[in-house]
User: Fold ABC transporter domain-containing protein from Dioscorea zingiberensis.
Amino acid sequence: MAYSPQVPRWSPSRTSVEELHHLSDQNVEEHADDLEMQRMRSGNRSRWGKLALFPFSGSFSVYARPVVAEETNDTSIFEEEVVVVEGMPHEKYENLADGMGHQHGAFLTWQDLWVMASDGRGRQLTILGGISGYAQPGEVLAIMGPSGCGKSTLLDTLAGRLQSNARQKGNILVNGRKQTLSFGTSAYVTQDDTLMTTMTVREAVHYSAQLQLPNTMTVAQKKERAEMTIREMGLRDAADTRIGGWVSKGISGGQKRRVSICMEILTRPKLLFLDEPTSGLNSAASYHVMSRIASLAQREGITVLTAIHQPSSEVFDLFHSLCLLSSGNTVYFGPANMTNEEIEDDHGDYEEGKTTASAAKATEILVKSYSSSTTCKEATQRIAFINEKGSGELIKRRSQASF
Ligand SMILES: Nc1ncnc2c1ncn2[C@@H]1O[C@H](COP(=O)(O)OP(=O)(O)OP(=O)(O)O)[C@@H](O)[C@H]1O
Assistant:
C-alpha cells in the first residue's frame, strides 16, 4: 500500500462580520479582504433589491453631470451641472425630482453603434453590428463574450480610442449630449501593466500624482490624494515594496493591476474603462481587484465599464449590469443578477439555437430573441430616458469642479 503522509491542511475560513468588529486596527488591515467581501455581499444584496425594479429603479440622491464648457469653448475647464432631487439636505443643490439623480456622475449611452475596419486586403469587416446600451454612475457594467466578439472594440469606441483604420457610426452620449470629456474625466486601464519596475508602489503613485493632478493643487494635496488612493486600492501594506519585474521579484500580479488602476483613478474620473482587469490573476486576486473597483464606483459614483473573461461567481456577483456580446452583436444587455431561468424565458429560442444550429446560426437566433425580449425593450426605454433627462429641461447650476 502506498504511503500517504498525514499532511496537516489549512483551509481558509471567512471571518464573520461580528468577529471583525472586535479586531484591532492593525488586524483589520489583515482581514480587509474578508471585511470587503462581506460588506460587498451584504451591501449588494440590498442594492440589488432595488435593481429588481429595473429599469426605473431610481431611489437616488444627487445627480450632477459633467459637461465641457460649450458656451465658453474652454475645454480645459471641467464644469458640473448640478441637478438635485427632492429632499437632499445640501445647500449646494436645488430641488428637482427627476427620478435619475446620482452622485456627480456620467451616464453613458450608445445607440445603434457600428464599427467597421478594413482587413488590410480591401475588405470591410463589421466588428460591432449596431449595438445599444448604457452605463450608470456608481455601477459596474461587465462586457463579456467569447474571444474576438468585440469587447475591447466596444470599450475603445466608447472611450474614443478607436484605431485609425476603423470607422464608427451611431450615437455615443454622455448625459444626453455628444461631448468631448476633458482631461481627467475619463480613464482607461489597459490589459498590460506598464510600470517602472525599480520604483516602490508609493513612489510610482506619488510621481504619477505630481504629473497628472492640476497645478491648482498644492504638492501636499497631491501627496494626500496619492496616499488616499493607495489606501482605497488596498495597497497600504505594499506601499514601500518595489514593483519589480522579471529580474527582481516585487509585488504580486494582483497588486500590480491595482497599482495601474491607482494611477488612473488619481484624477477621480467620472468614467472608468477597464480592459480585462483580471487577466492572468487567480480567483482570489481577481476578486480583490474587482471588489475594490466596485466599492470605489459605488462610493464615488464612478461609471465603470469592464471587459472581462470568465469571472468567478464571486466576481460576477459584483457586477450590476451585463452586456453579453457574440460576433459583434448584443445577445443580452440587462441586470447581471437576472437568473438563468429569466434569461432563458426571455430568450425563447435559446435551446433550439444551442442544439440544432451552427455557431453562427445560434448567434443569429440569440440576437433575434434578445432584440424581441422584454429586457431589450427595457434597456431601450432606459437609454431614451437617460438621454431625454440628460439633455432636457433640468434645473442647471454650474460650479467649478474641484479636483
Ligand atoms: N482596428 C482593427 N482592424 C481590423 N480588425 C480589427 C480591429 N480591431 C479589432 N479587429 C477585429 O475585430 C474582432 C474583435 O476584436 P476585439 O479585440 O474587440 O475582441 P475581444 O472580444 O476583445 O477579444 P479578446 O477577448 O480576445 O481580447 C477581432 O476579430 C479583431 O481581429
DSSP finds 13 helices and twelve strands in the chain.
